[in-house]
Design brief:
Amino acid/polyamine transporter I; 18 helices; globular
């Protein structure tokens, strides 16, 4: 690939922003407000700080080991092709499925607001299923309608959110953001990490690293620019939402809180506009993440950590991985409620990001990194995970069993495959 054909700074920034604002903010804003109350902007700031620390490791690793494998490559380089790295890579795949479930849940919730109230509960699940199956069909048939429109969809949703912030800030009630309206400190922290997966997506830059123009200069700048922009955007969106709606109103409209927050200052037109933006955003996020997760299964299989059948391509696409991913997403999105999806997804990515930070500590001589920054990032991810688990234990201890099942599945799948292949089960 000639230097002219490679990806420049702004295109890489767009990949990172598009990955993070793919649909998460439309889905988890109500969850954040339910936990943090008037401190919702602070909750997003805390979660963003952990994401920013992890960005350092990703930037260093992407420059040193540019590859389409991204996170998978980093983990295998640091820990070797053993059970530990293999289980983490499968956990990454499962976490992408949970992320898909979040996007599909948000798609169904926003689509259902256009139905009569009595039909909305059933309609949500119908739209969840139609969204997943329909976009799978697009991928299966090789159609790239959403893919070709992705740049315009990203620009549209960012534009809508900026308009939402610019107009909404004028009608914010400062009293609703005062410390007296905040939840207890530990609940604020836990609330921030329950919605941590809203920052998931910046690591997609790693998958495009080998196509970057002047990577040593471009990649770090792109990583930091994308994450800092999204942190600022989320804080402002949270301020407008909490500053315009009471917490009971946000909780009542939790599944479509962002659209509800536009009503006080933009009326029904604003509600409809945000809902349409959410539908486009979540549809494009399902498309990108579905293909990415299927491709991830292909890369993991290529590394010898999943059955070789997942390496097979039909019409240049990993069809079996696509179908397995679709089936698992349908099950999770229709069986789990929003809080559970957000909690499990955030926990999965916090574990993976802590491992990536540790990987950069191990590989620091090759990446030219300051070990203490990545060590701090790993510690921050683990503290965040502990706060998240504490909140789960306090409010819904059964969710820990679901999380344990996901982790057990990752280790179990890798262990079983290694036994069947008679490979050494070692770390």
């Amino acid at each position: 690939m000639s230097n002219q054909d490679k990806i420049g700074y702004w295109s890489i920034v767009a990949i990172g922003i598009g990955g993070m604002v793919g649909g998460g903010i439309f889905a988890v804003l109500g969850v954040a407000a339910q936990f943090a109350h008037g401190a919702t902007p602070l909750a997003f700031t805390i979660a963003g700080a952990v994401a920013l620390l992890t960005t350092y490791s990703y930037a260093k690793l992407s420059v040193a080991f540019p590859s389409q494998g991204g996170t998978i490559t980093f983990l295998d380089r640091a820990f070797g092709p053993g059970l530990f790295a293999g289980s983490l890579n499968i956990l990454l795949w499962l976490s992408y499925i949970i992320m898909l479930s979040l996007y599909a849940y948000a798609f169904g919730s926003y689509a259902a607001v256009f139905l009569p109230p009595d039909w909305q509960d059933a309609g949500k699940h119908i739209f969840i299923t139609l969204g997943i199956v329909g976009i799978t069909a697009l991928n299966f048939l090789g159609a790239a309608v959403i893919g070709r429109a992705e740049r315009w969809i990203v620009a549209f949703k960012i534009g809508i959110l900026l308009v939402f912030v610019a107009i909404g800030l004028w009608s914010v009630d400062p009293q609703k953001l005062q410390p007296g309206e905040w939840a207890p400190p530990l609940q604020i922290v836990a609330g921030g990490f329950i919605i941590f997966l809203a920052y998931e997506g910046f690591e997609l830059i790693a998958n495009a690293a080998q196509d970057a123009r002047n990577p040593r200069r471009t990649l770090p700048r792109a990583y930091y620019s994308a994450v800092l922009f999204v942190i600022a955007l989320y804080i402002l969106v949270a301020m407008v939402t909490v500053g315009n709606l009471s917490i009971p109103m946000i909780v009542d409209a939790k599944d479509y809180a962002l659209a509800a927050a536009a009503s006080p200052f933009l009326g029904n037109t604003g509600f409809t506009l945000i809902a349409i933006a959410a539908l486009l955003s979540t549809a494009s996020a399902i498309n990108a993440t579905l293909y990415g997760a299927a491709r991830l299964s292909y890369i993991i299989a290529r590394e010898g950590e999943l059955p070789e059948v997942l390496e097979r391509r039909i019409w240049s696409k990993p069809i079996l991985g696509l179908l397995i991913t679709t089936g698992a997403t349908l099950l999770a999105a229709n069986c789990l409620e929003l809080n559970s999806i957000a909690t499990i997804g955030s926990a999965g990515f916090l574990l993976i990001f802590s491992a990536v930070n540790i990987a950069n500590v191990i590989l620091s001589e090759q990446t030219g990194s300051l070990r203490w920054i990545s060590a701090l990032g790993a510690a921050a991810c683990l503290v965040a995970l502990s706060a998240l688990l504490w909140q789960i234990e306090m409010q819904a201890p059964l969710k820990i069993l679901v999380l344990a099942a996901i982790l057990g599945a990752a280790v179990g799948i890798e262990s079983l495959y290694r036994l069947l292949r008679r490979r050494r089960i070692g770390f």
